[in-house]
Amino acid sequence: MPAIRHFFLDLEGTIVRDKNYEPIEGAVNWVNGLKDRGLGILVASNNTTHPAREIRQCLANVGFRLEEPEILTCALVGMDILREWGARSCLVIGEDSLRAMLAEAGFQVDEEARTEAVVVGLDRGLTYERLSRAVDALIGQNAPLLALHYNRLYLDVGGTRGPSVGAVVRALEYASRAQAVVAGKPSRRFYDTALRRGSASAEEVLFVSDDPFSDLVGARGVGMKTAFVLSGRYPSDDVLESIEPAMRPDIVVSSIGEIEVGE
Questions:
Q1: N or C: which end of the chain has fewer CB within 10 A?
Q2: Positive or negative, the Cα torsion across 53, 57, 59, 65?
Q3: Which residues of 201-224 are buried (b: 16+ CB within 10 A; e: fewer)?
């Protein structure tokens, strides 16, 4: 069996506690230790509100020594999909920061005249008017539907739960009969992109996350080893009982700093 040489890491709940970027205890030393040993690292995030450079800077501010190419977000994968579709004009359900990311990458955002794709990210100011425009574009212009991820719940910095991207995508699918293409975890496309970005084979990767259902089941599905940390949304491994045994994590630890890295 190939040795683990690459570590793909979820962000919130895994190396930082939440959107305030407070590090999980031991995470900074653990991640920087991998860097010192020349092992591969990739932070793999379903964040749709911040570009990779801002995430890298937030991590640098609290001590993580990571480079921008070591950050992969679902928004970056989504932009690759839009380019493959030849879609340059997008109607966006998302925050201003997502529109800015798309515009910076050369996409035309929220033009009235035509919609070549409907893109859905986290939108905490979502209105019925914007939902209606999206449904009209999906039906009337036959625009494809791109979900940057499919998460059900969003947890804000105060701990309040709300509907996340997947809940909005399901509403659009139901109303329009469209079928979304998903860019982020747990889509196969995201993991394949991560492997190419990290120049890694799946057998050499340990994927670490606090989400055993989405992140880790998806990673197991492409042949990666997986580690479930109890430092995020699930404080107990009891949740694993609802996952079929073959897809359960290889390792369960309280936090990432407890994962032993072999020589």
A1: C
A2: positive
A3: ebebbbbbbbbbbbbbbbbbebeb
Residue ranges of domains in the chain: 6-46+186-258, 75-182
Write the pLDDT tens digit of every residue in 169-209. Answer: 999 999 999 999 999 999 999 999 999 999 999 999 999 99
Question: The whole model's pTM is what?
Answer: 0.92
Q: 75-182: which CATH topology?
A: Rossmann fold (3.40.50)
* Residue of 187, 224, 186 whose CA lies nearest to 208: 224
- Amino acid code (one letter) for 125: G
Q: Is the peptide bond before 249 cis (omega within 30 degrees of 0)?
A: no
Helix, strand, coil shares of the chain, percent, nearest 5, are 40, 20, 40
Per CATH, is 6-46+186-258 categorized as 3.40.50.720?
A: no
Q: Which helix (H) or strand (E) holds 146?
A: strand 145-147
